[in-house]
């Protein structure tokens, strides 16, 4: 078994370089440390299945024959793998941009002074002409931007910039990158931001989660768009509007949103401003209360671009029965390249779901002969075909499950997976 992993408290460069390494070492298992940074955890919540990742608890160190490590060169920073340090038969490969020597005595060491470790791997991927999806390009760009401050840190090199261009040419989505990375805010921005967090209105239209807040802003305070973007990110909103009275009869409106779901630019143009589907702003010669009322009315009139569950659901072609053995279930998951399957009774009713997380609880060979019903996840949420995919994704995220049964008139008419939603999101 060969695995690729990275350091605990993983940032985006750690995750990106780990995934990038798998394009250079076919068949490698991607092992995510137990502890990752909050923004990375949020990213993994919706990308886990598509990236085909494994948790630390699913890996048996004794079975590892080749270890690939990215963004660190020290055993101490890995997730409970120190026992491998004494293995003379272990092949170790390290990719890192930290120039200080580490405790791992790698048989193959790739260490160069660039802004991000993923840059080193991308250069090799480009050289070998390995193909990757826009989703991967976006993650790789997150890695570069996270460690270089969007190419602004002194550690940034021309090589990082060249790989940034390479990723943009291959479909990296800057909107997604911006949503996950922090923007620099001074004390006035932070004070405004905190007030927005504590006093805002949130509501939902056709599965699109919107937020609206009215707050005084210091005259001459620039970069209000950054504050609104950060507000949108922290609140987990699809669309956010900030309304900032500058004088008694002059108000600034700033909008940020997911252009796939809501055309912010179209709304602010009706206020006399400008923008594009994902962002816009306007200055109104009106008091804040009037500006808020106009924005609220325009939101109510808008028609969000809402993809439905019926657009992405598929028939339940493969399911488990409660009496199936866990060994049989593991084989079906492996053969179907699925991470989770529904469990149905003889009449096609939903009993629950079983996936890799539950199978990881099997501790001995005898345990594999237990029935699926012993470990399956019960009380599974369901969705109807007319629900939006955004609603379905939120349910999956809240319940930490990768598949939901689709019910209509009391019967199962299909299933929708997190992977299907993410593939649609990235136009794959």
What does this 3D model show about the protein?
This protein has 428 residues and is α/β, with parallel strands linked by helices. It has three domains: 179 residues, inorganic pyrophosphatase (n-terminal core) (Alpha-Beta Complex); 115 residues, Diaminopimelate Epimerase, Chain A, domain 1 (Roll); 116 residues, Roll (CBS-domain). It contains 15 helices and 16 strands. A six-stranded parallel sheet has the order 3-2-1-4-5-6. β11 and β12 form a beta hairpin. α2 crosses α15, α4 crosses α6 and α7 packs across α8. The longest helix has 15 residues. It starts with a strand and ends with a helix. The model has no long low-confidence stretch (mean pLDDT 91). Belongs to the tRNA nucleotidyltransferase/poly(A) polymerase family. This is CBS domain containing protein.
SSE topology:
Layout: E1 2-6, H1 12-21, E2 29-32, H2 38-51, E3 53-55, E4 66-70, E5 91-96, E6 108-111, H3 117-128, H4 134-148, H5 158-169, H6 174-180, H7 187-198, E7 201-205, E8 208-214, H8 224-235, E9 239-247, E10 250-257, H9 264-269, E11 274-276, E12 279-284, H10 288-301, H11 309-312, H12 326-336, E13 340-344, E14 350-355, H13 356-359, H14 389-399, E15 403-408, E16 411-417, H15 418-425
Parallel strand pairs: 1-2, 1-4, 2-3, 4-5, 5-6, 8-9
Antiparallel strand pairs: 7-8, 9-10, 10-12, 11-12, 13-14, 15-16
């Amino acid at each position: 078994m060969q695995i690729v992993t990275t350091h605990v408290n993983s940032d985006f460069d750690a995750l990106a370089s780990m995934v990038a390494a798998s394009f250079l070492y076919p068949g490698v298992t991607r092992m995510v440390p137990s502890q990752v940074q909050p923004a990375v955890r949020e990213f993994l919540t919706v990308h886990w299945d598509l990236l085909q990742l494994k948790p630390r608890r699913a890996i048996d160190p004794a079975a590892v024959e080749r270890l690939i490590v990215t963004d660190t060169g020290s055993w101490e920073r890995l997730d409970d793998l120190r026992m491998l340090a004494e293995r003379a038969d272990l092949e170790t490969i390290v990719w890192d941009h930290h120039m200080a020597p580490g405790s791992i005595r790698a048989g193959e060491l790739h260490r160069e002074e660039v802004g991000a470790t993923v840059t080193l791997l991308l250069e090799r991927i480009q050289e070998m002409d390995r193909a990757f999806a826009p989703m991967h390009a976006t993650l790789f760009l997150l890695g570069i931007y996270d460690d270089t401050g969007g190419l602004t840190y002194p550690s940034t090199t021309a090589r990082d910039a060249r790989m940034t261009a390479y990723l943009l040419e291959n479909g990296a989505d800057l909107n997604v990158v911006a949503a996950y990375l922090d923007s620099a805010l001074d004390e006035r921005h932070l004070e405004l931001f905190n007030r927005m967090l504590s006093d805002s209105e949130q509501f939902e239209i056709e599965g699109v989660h919107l937020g609206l807040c009215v707050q005084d802003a210091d005259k001459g305070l620039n970069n209000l768009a950054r504050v609104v973007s950060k507000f949108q990110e922290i609140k987990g909103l699809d669309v956010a509007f900030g309304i900032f009275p500058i004088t008694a009869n002059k108000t600034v409106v700033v909008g940020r949103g997911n252009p796939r779901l809501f055309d912010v630019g179209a709304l602010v143009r009706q206020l006399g401003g400008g923008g594009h589907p994902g962002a816009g702003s306007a200055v109104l010669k009106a008091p804040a209360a009037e500006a808020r009322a106009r924005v609220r009315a325009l939101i109510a009139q808008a028609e969000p671009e809402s993809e439905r569950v019926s657009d992405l659901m598929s028939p339940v072609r493969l399911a488990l029965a409660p009496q199936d053995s866990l060994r049989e279930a593991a084989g079906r998951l492996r053969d179907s390249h699925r991470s989770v399957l529904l469990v149905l009774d003889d009449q096609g009713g939903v009993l629950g779901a079983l996936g890799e997380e539950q199978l990881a609880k099997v501790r001995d060979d005898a345990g594999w002969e237990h029935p699926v019903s012993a470990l399956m996840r019960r009380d599974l949420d369901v969705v109807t075909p007319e629900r939006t995919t955004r609603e379905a994704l939120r349910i999956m995220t809240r319940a930490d499950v990768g598949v939901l049964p689709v019910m209509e008139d009391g019967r199962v008419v299909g299933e929708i997976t997190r992977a299907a939603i993410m593939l649609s999101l990235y136009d794959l």
